[in-house]
């Protein structure tokens, strides 16, 4: 493995020295910053918004910018408190009580944040749903969570099958007119005006549920991962030390609403740090993204390798048309960032990209290339302070350096999930030998940097060495003709083997000779015995709206199965399968 170290852009960061911060870190130091210290008076809406609005020094500070082309609106912490209180009063009038579920099925709009904050203020449990869900997926998830209120738009609500919402569930529409498809429909425009602008938070304990996020269940249906109000400490810490957020910062997390990254780091974590949040509406386009970077100059941009890939495909001329020197810290999440994309971004936008890793169950960034610290290309980084990571074998024993094993974490950090919705006790299967098992394979080097190698259920043992799809994909991608590739393990009743799907750069001709060259390249880098038995050239690889590769679609096609089912279509429900964000 070639491990390239990139020297830090700037030695200054809120973290300071990583080694000292990790060695001396205590969660109590973070907990002491919250108003609940010494009591059971927890409420995320108060800690994220109200405590800033209560202070004359910060009430008028910028909290949210919403940019939708010609429409640009800004909100202070004081204004967000008043609006979220009005929303809380409106939802309470609809019968939403502590512990009830609020489904949030909205595009990128300020109402997305207001609904979340209102639910938290009431002690209700919000569940964000990505707007790209299919009707089948939507029906399954909504029926699973049984919300008391569902917030949506008429356009998105038309995806919802008529029989999905129970008679006691209210469909609350933020725009337009009632659809007439459901028993109880209400309009925000009718209910919100005149609502009081004050609503004291419902104080709850640290284990009170805050939100449910649905994430891939491996080979089964999605699991509802439950997080609590007590997880705020982890969000504050990682927002500050990984994303470099604090008062005066502006954070743009560009995942779809309903994805885990957008839910947590697109609002909650920045506000806990006293930072402002940028939300950009509308569909992605390279010019829209560059325009937002130029106009708003976010001090932190938390994005995805898929977005970097699309910007790269748009060419090197486009970023030259924008002034991007105001861009600050840049980080990615979702899958390992290819080194060639790192260098393209550095050469054309003048910034280093800092890869990070986390999962729905972990609840916060767990591995990171930190601001002000050296980056190792292809690495997800080092463990955040307060989290102990390890690469282990099936018996829970630590693996030697650069030896493939399962990435695991010692339970006990504040943001760890509290359970699986409707599956009491099922979470115990994710902990073994005293470790939380991520389901991802990884190696760790002598400097404590972790390298992800795909899911453990897709790996093969090649002459005593475990090899995952990502390792094979990384080797194939080194050939200059390869634009992108995906590797799966086809179902077989013989010895397991790998099959690769390759998309070539324009101008390269697919053929038998190139297949053999690519196989030889992979075997030379990994093992001469690598069972890469087949390669198939393709014009396109299946991806979702977030540009995440859908290997299950490839597997389904290999088996001749339909790909329209919930289990087959999506590897990514909320920003990634277990083991990614």
Task: Characterise this structure.
- The strands form seven sheets. This protein has a nine-stranded mixed β-sheet, with helices on both faces. Strands 5-4-6-7-8 form a five-stranded parallel β-sheet.
- It starts with a strand and ends in a 12-residue tail after the last helix.
- Helix 3 (44-53) packs across helix 4, helix 3 (44-53) packs across helix 10 (260-272) and helix 4 crosses helix 5.
- The chain has 17 helices and 29 strands.
- The protein is of the alpha/beta class and 581 residues long.
- Helix content is 28%, strand content 23%.
Relevant terms:
2 domains; 5-stranded parallel beta sheet; alpha/beta; 9-stranded mixed beta sheet; 581 residues; Rossmann fold; 17 helices; GMP Synthetase, Chain A, domain 3
Radius of gyration equals: 23 Å
Assign the CATH class of the largest domain.
Alpha Beta
Strand order in space, largest sheet: 3-2-12-11-13-14-15-16-18
State mean pLDDT (0 to 100 scale).
90
**How would you characterize the largest beta sheet?**
9 strands, mixed
Strand content: 15-25%
**Structural domains: how many:** 2
**Annotated CATH architecture of the largest domain:** 3-Layer(aba) Sandwich
Which fold name is given in CATH as the topology of the largest domain? Rossmann fold
CATH homology group of the largest domain: ANL, N-terminal domain
Shape: globular
Overall number of strands: 29
Helix content: 25-40%
């Amino acid at each position: 493995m070639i491990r390239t170290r990139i020297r830090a852009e700037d030695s200054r960061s809120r973290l300071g020295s990583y080694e000292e911060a990790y060695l001396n870190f205590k969660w109590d130091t973070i907990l002491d910053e919250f108003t609940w210290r010494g009591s059971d008076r927890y409420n995320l809406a108060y800690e994220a918004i109200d405590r800033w609005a209560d202070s004359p020094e910060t009430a008028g500070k910028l909290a949210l910018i919403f940019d939708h082309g010609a429409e640009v609106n800004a909100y202070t912490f004081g204004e967000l408190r008043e609006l979220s209180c009005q929303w809380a009063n409106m939802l309470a009038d609809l019968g939403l009580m502590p512990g009830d579920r609020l489904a949030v099925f909205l595009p990128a709009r300020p109402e997305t944040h207001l609904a979340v904050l209102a639910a938290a203020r009431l002690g209700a449990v919000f569940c964000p749903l990505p707007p790209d869900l299919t009707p089948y997926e939507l029906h399954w998830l909504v029926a699973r969570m049984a919300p008391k209120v569902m917030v949506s738009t008429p356009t998105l609500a038309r995806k919802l099958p008529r029989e999905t919402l129970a008679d006691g569930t209210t469909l609350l529409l933020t725009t337009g007119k009632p659809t007439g498809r459901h028993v109880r429909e209400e309009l925000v425009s009718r209910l919100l005006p005149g609502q009081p602008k004050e609503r004291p938070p419902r104080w709850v304990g640290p284990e009170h549920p805050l939100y449910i996020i649905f994430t891939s269940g491996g080979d089964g249906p999605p699991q509802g991962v439950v997080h609590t109000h007590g997880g705020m400490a982890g969000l504050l810490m990682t927002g500050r030390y990984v994303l470099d957020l604090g008062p005066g910062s502006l954070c743009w997390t560009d995942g779809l609403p309903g994805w885990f990254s957008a839910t947590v780091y697109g609002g909650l974590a920045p506000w806990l740090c006293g930072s402002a949040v940028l939300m950009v509406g509308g569909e992605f386009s390279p010019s829209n993204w560059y325009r937002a970077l130029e106009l708003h100059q976010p001090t932190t941009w938390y994005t995805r390798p898929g977005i970097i890939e699309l910007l790269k495909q748009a060419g090197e001329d486009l970023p030259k048309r924008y002034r991007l020197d105001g861009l600050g810290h840049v980080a990615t999440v979702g899958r390992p960032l290819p080194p060639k994309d790192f260098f393209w971004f550095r050469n054309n936008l003048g910034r280093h990209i800092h890869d990070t890793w986390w999962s729905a169950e972990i609840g916060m960034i767990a591995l990171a290339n930190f601001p002000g610290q050296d980056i190792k290309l292809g690495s997800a980084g080092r463990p955040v302070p307060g989290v102990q990571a390890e690469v282990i074998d099936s018996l829970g024993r630590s693996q030697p350096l650069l030896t493939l094993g399962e990435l695991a974490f010692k339970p006990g950090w504040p943001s760890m999930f509290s359970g699986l919705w409707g599956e009491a006790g099922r979470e115990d299967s994710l902990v073994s030998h005293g470790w939380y098992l991520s389901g991802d394979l990884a190696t760790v080097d002598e400097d404590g940097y972790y390298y992800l190698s795909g899911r453990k259920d897709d790996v093969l043992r090649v002459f005593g060495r475990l090899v995952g799809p990502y390792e094979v994909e990384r080797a194939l991608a080194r050939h200059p003709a390869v634009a992108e590739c995906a590797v799966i393990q086809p179902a077989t009743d013989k010895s397991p083997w790998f099959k690769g799907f390759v998309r070539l750069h324009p101008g390269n001709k697919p053929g038998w000779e190139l297949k053999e060259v690519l196989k030889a390249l992979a075997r030379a880098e990994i093992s001469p015995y690598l069972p890469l038995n087949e390669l198939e050239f393709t014009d396109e690889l299946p991806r979702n709206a977030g540009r995440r590769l859908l290997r299950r679609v490839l597997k389904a096609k290999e088996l001749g199965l339909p790909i329209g089912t919930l289990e087959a279509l999506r590897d990514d429900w909320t920003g990634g399968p277990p083991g990614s964000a």
